[in-house]
Amino acid sequence: MDDTLLLLTVAAVALVVGLAAGWAVQSAAARRRLARERSFFGLPEGSECVLVTHRDSSSAQWSIPRHDALALLGLAAVIENCGAHPEVAPHDTGLQGFGARTEFCVGDPTAHRRLAAHLASLLPGVAVHPGDESGTGRGTFAVGGSSYRVEPGAVEYVLLARLTAGEGGRPVFLAAGQRPVTHRAAVRHLVRNRARLARKHGADGQFCLLLKVVNSQAYGPDVVELVADVTKAATTAAESKGHRAAS
Q1: How far apart (Å, rounded) are the C-alpha atoms in residues 208 and 123?
Q2: pTM, rounded to two decimals
Q3: I need a labelling partner for 128 at 20 to 30 A (CA). Which of 34, 120, 167, 210 fits?
Q4: 159 and 210 in contact (C-beta within 8 Å)?
């Protein structure tokens, strides 16, 4: 074998070894990412989860409002990637307690029964104003001594939470918003930032974030700002006192 052929052979072998090593490193990194994602969402391979949403009051049949349906589609890719099996359930259907399987609860807490129950038991520091007879003030959030009123199409708020309770230790994810577009915005924020949220709060950590959706009339669910991490205030029973309005 002459020197040129020997060099070509060595180079080819080195290339194959390098490609194999690179593939192995990438595969290992992908497995670690998937393991972290499964841990954060509480979705080991083959597990079950439930997505709880509104019924569409404008439809005579069992259907899901448009923005809520799009929010659930945003979660579907995550659930499929984790190898889990979802069930979609309406909010007014009797379901088991929490903790046995991961739950994604999406909607307006003034109309979504299970979401309202989760807020009362898991986020006692959050109050949601039902509105007066004319509907004024409906959906206003009160948390941490401040109130957050909706300005439809301009400024709307949503709570995004990951909470653990009950037997089994599987998390409950809440997207509790003032208008349907905010539910979709919260789910999108969760999916896009899942790795960062897991690093900050821990794969088994709890959090409650107050998000603001800005100018949804023009931008839909795309412009979202983090107002505050209200985990401590939201998970602590609020004292009876006045709240200052958010600017």
Answers
A1: 9
A2: 0.82
A3: 167
A4: yes
In this structure, the number of other CB atoms found within 10 A of the CB of residue 110 comes to: 16
Helix segments in 83-241, DSSP class H = 113-122, 180-192, 194-201, 216-219, 231-234
pLDDT digits (tens, 9 = 90+) for 103-118: 999 998 988 889 999 9
- Which are the contacts of 32, defined by CB distance < 8 A and separation ≥ 6? none
* Residue found under tokens 């905010």: 182
Q: Structure tokens of 108?
A: 């307006």
Of 128, 132, 135, give the one whose Cα is nearest residue 107: 128
Tens-digit pLDDT profile for residues 215-240 = 999 999 999 999 999 999 999 986 54
* Alpha-carbon span 174 to 210, nearest angstrom: 11
Q: Are 78 and 194 in contact (CB under 8 A)?
A: yes
Residue identified by tokens 């391979």 is: 45
226 within 8 A of 137, measured Cβ to Cβ: no
Q: How far is residue 125's CA from residue 32's CA, in Å, rounded to a whole number?
A: 36
Lay out the sheet containing 85-90: strands in order across: 85-90, 48-53, 102-107, 171-177, 155-164, 207-214, 224-229
Strand ranges for the chain from DSSP E? 48-53, 85-90, 102-107, 127-128, 141-143, 146-148, 155-164, 171-177, 207-214, 224-229, 244-245
| Average pLDDT for the chain | 83
